[in-house]
Amino acid sequence: MSAVHDFAEETISVQKHVRIALAGNPNCGKTTVFNGYTGARQHVGNYPGVTVDRKEGEVVVGKTRVTLVDLPGTYSLTAYSMEEIVSRRELSVGNVQAVIDVAEASALERNLLLTVQMLEMGMPVVLGCNMMDEAKAGGISINMERLSKSLGIPVLPMTARSGLGLKEVMDAAVKLANSGRREPLRLSYGTDIDQALRQMEAKIASAKLLVDRYHPYYTALKLIERDADMLAEVNAADAKTAGELEATSRQVAKHVEDTLGASMESVITDHRYGFIRSVLADGVLTQDPSKDRLAFTDKLDKVLTNTFLGPIIMLAVLYLMYQITIEIGAYPQGWVEDGLAALGDFVGDNMADGPLKSLVVDGIINGVGGVLSFVPLIVIMFSLLSFLEDCGYMARMAYMMDRVFRMFGLHGASVMPYCVSGGIAGGCAIPGAMATRTLRSPKEKLATLLTLPYMTCGAKWPVFLLLATAFFGTEQAPTIMFLLTIVGWVVALLVARLLRSTFVKGEPTPFVMELPPYRFPTLFSVLLHCWERAWMYIKKAGTVLLAISVMLWAMMKFPEMPEDMAAPYEQKVAVAQKAVDDLPQDAAEEQRSAAEEALSEAQNEQSEAELAYSLAGRLGKAVEPVLAPLGYDWRTDIALIAGVAAKEAVVGTLGTAWSLGEVDPEGEEETKSLGDRLKAAPNWSKATALSLMLFVLLYSPCFVALVVIKQEAGGWKWLAFSMLFNTAIAYGVALIAYRIGLSVWG
């Protein structure tokens, strides 16, 4: 047995608790490793002050409890992106005792750049060479023992998909966690740089500058690299010493540029790669020349990213996703709707009439329940999205869209914020706005920020599904959903072109992206990702939307009509009720039906008048003249106003409004779905539904998204612009669609 494997077989420490970080490049399989260790014992949040995902999970190894911290995927620790900054700070001040560095075995040279930088920090690192099955299939062989000796750290093989090697790597990390910080790896960057590093390290150590966070050598190295984040940290800690160090780093940087004609960062990066190549060339990495160099991934990409076939296949994949979601999801959605209707009937039959019953049935069950009925479809869509992400096809979509984006003044990296926002459906504009931080051009970032709300985010999905299935049927609904996605993209690109030609002019920047190899994702990984997203949706419905539903119910219920205003309606209902009660037992069916219809009309008039008198009704009536050309009545207007708080609230508000505004004398209304109620309403039609779907797609982002856009764009004017400009665009598009719809469907 090799010495490498002895790391996992020696006695495990009796230390009670350690924190171990999980690091690696994007697409190295780190998420699969994290899930393999923690399973469902993980929680997701955000790092303090930023919106980069923070994942932690608990693992028990022998007598040691391990908190595993999943760092954001990053290629280096240079402070260019928020992911890099967060990773570096977590390693420096996050009380991490060891690092498991997950490296893709078939791309070892690129992955080792991050490893070298962590070793330069002085971090105890275990290198896990992941996806060994793919490396072997490609004829790649790695001498783990030799690589371990060259780097001075444990190096172990692993295949996270099958779980092979996970235990050995974790055992080695726990053992290493007790050894404390190690001396940093010191590479030679040339005489001039090395000399400056020694001088700066001595000065930093003498001043005890940031020694509680970084080794003095690492601080000096980052200052030599002209790392902006480190410069800010040093200056905040000791401005006088920072000025002296800054002078030294500027002097050596100028000397390097004058003599080599290159920036300090590029020189240091070249030396790091030179070290990595020398290590790999020393009998560590070998390639079987008999293996086919055109890998499976390359063969697939010749078709899937083909200039002509690629976009066609991409559109077909999107349409198929909608088809599967709606066709399969219709069954469980119907079960949920029936269950909610039964719950409403049960609660209604067992509660006394009054405001509390109205709150529970009309406000909560019909409000929140209308959103929850779409959970089965959301689960199916999220499962398909997780599969596309994990198998590597989402990255190909971004690659293909870059060709189009450049024509509209956007950067290829804008694709991912669009996709996160719902460009492939089911996303959210809030993390989408955060994802624009990867864009280095302020102009391209701003254009992306202002146009990504046009995507079909998950919050808009219930509205689209409700109206598409109710008015166009389950057969045409997938086509409607697909076309809405395309409209979102088209409008976003056209508006981006307009912005880049007017308000946010600027030169385009180049786009560089790594395409991960295709992999068949594990069922566990897909289900876990699906559960995370679905649970966030359910949690939002049970918290934010519950609060909004209760507030909107109160606005639609109060103030109540004064007695003098309510009296004529009550008298009309009483007369109609008496007419029904006075009918003889042998009355003709036509006579009884006419009397009951008169009673229903009287009750509906009373309910509608009460709703119109409420605070929400008055607000809806106030904006009705403005939105009437789009085909909306005042109750729909209430829902659109609520949608500015949260788009899901549109469905909940419609459910509450039509619950309060219509009454069926036999109680049948309670068992009807919201879609059935809207379809039966006299002022609703296919043209109205189409107009409303487009308006919801394009109008003002939700309140939280607006706040994030303001933070990322850096000004209230852009919040106002996004709210007002998007609503104006939505109004124009919805008006055209409504007029066309009337001419087609009448």
Description:
The chain has 746 residues and is of the alpha/beta class. The protein contains 32 helices and nine strands. Mean pLDDT is 83; it is low at 1-14, 45-51 and 663-671. Among the domains are: 3-177, P-loop containing nucleotide triphosphate hydrolases (Rossmann fold); 191-287, Helix Hairpins (Orthogonal Bundle), CATH 1.10.287.1770; 524-745, no CATH class. A seven-stranded mixed sheet has the order 2-3-4-1-5-6-8, sandwiched between helices.
Largest sheet entry: 7 strands, mixed
Helix content range of the residues, please?
Answer: 55-70%
Radius of gyration: 31 Å
Strand content: 5-15%
Assign the structural class, choosing from mainly alpha, mainly beta, alpha/beta, alpha+beta, or little secondary structure: alpha/beta
Overall geometry: elongated
- Total of DSSP H or I helical runs spanning 4+ residues: 32
List keywords for this structure.
746 residues; Rossmann fold; Helix Hairpins; two-stranded antiparallel ribbon; 32 helices; 9 strands; 7% strand; disordered N terminus
